[in-house]
Amino acid sequence: MPGPVFRVGDHVALHTIEREDLNFLTRLRNDPELRHGVTFTRPESDVELETWFEEHVSETDAADEGAQFVIVPRDPEEPAGTDGGTDDGGAAGGEVDETAAGGEETGSDGAADGTDDPSPQPVGYVSLFDVERPAGTGEVAMTVAPEFQGRGYATDAVRELVAYGIEELRLTKVRALALVTNDASRAVLENVGFRLGETRREAKHVDGEHVDVVAYSLLADDWFDRPETTRGLPDRPPGATAEERGLRDPFGAGGAESDVSDTDADHGGGR
């Protein structure tokens, strides 16, 4: 069963990962339909995932600002929609041991493992990792199980993770990688607002072939300039530009009638 809710999006909630979720993650990381999307080339056992949990989740170094969450639909009976793109979540990520995980079979009325457990059940996984200071950069990755793809869950989850990184951790730039052949993951990133950067030629070996990797990035300034950025921190202004909201600082406590100052305007960078 996932841990407590950390962030709530329009259609999904990001829950902390608990030890009980490791069986789900193990199945996902070994799923034949998904592991090539994150370039997993070897099987991963329960023991290996337990080690990963202890190193990256259970006993996180205080200096490590990364975060891993399972994705749980707010209303499993109502698909979120695809947000105008092909959101089947596949997988997107950089470092293999930090990226994400993929799918398993579901029962008709119960949990993702086919049981009748009515408790919240995860449909995928997102990760924020490689946070660097003082640069204020970090990388995100995600995967949604095959049977839950095409519902907008990945887009909503990545959007919430980016919001956490930029609005709460004050990151100035969030990065992401995807295989050039992974149209679904690329659509998710582009729907959230990531911009295409470099192409790393034949950077990964997938299913017997060398495949290009495309690098994406999203700047904090661009995040707050997007009209789709409609929420901010509690009791603070949502996204969009400070000037449009009539604020000196989108993180400040000033009201909508505050004066705008070119020197004071801050669009959410990591400081």
Map the helices and strands.
Elements: E1 5-8, E2 12-16, H1 22-30, H2 46-58, E3 67-73, E4 91-92, E5 124-132, E6 137-144, H3 153-168, E7 173-179, H4 183-192, E8 195-206, E9 209-219, H5 220-225, H6 242-245
Parallel strand pairs: 6-7
Antiparallel strand pairs: 1-2, 2-3, 3-5, 4-6, 5-6, 7-9, 8-9
Helix pairs in contact: 1-2, 3-4
Describe, in plain words, how this protein is organized in 3D:
The structure is a single chain. The protein has 271 residues and is an alpha+beta fold. The protein has helices at 22-30, 46-58, 153-168, 183-192, 220-225, 242-245, and strands spanning 5-8, 12-16, 67-73, 91-92, 124-132, 137-144, 173-179, 195-206, 209-219. It starts with a strand and ends in a 26-residue tail after the last helix. 44% of the residues are buried.
In brief:
The chain contains six helices and nine strands.
Structural class: alpha+beta
From the N-terminal CA to the C-terminal CA, the straight-line distance is 36 Å
How many DSSP helices? Answer: 6
Shape label: globular
Number of domains: 2
**Approximately what portion of the residues adopt beta-strand conformation?**
15-25%
CATH class of the largest domain: Alpha Beta
Q: What's the overall average pLDDT, rounded? A: 74
Write the CATH fold name of the largest domain. Aminopeptidase
**What fraction, in percent, of the residue positions are helical?**
10-25%
Which residues sit in consecutive blocks of at least 5 with pLDDT less than 50? 82-88, 94-116, 233-271
CATH homology superfamily of the largest domain: Gcn5-related N-acetyltransferase (GNAT)
**How many whole angstroms does the radius of gyration measure?**
19 Å
Number of beta-strand segments: 9
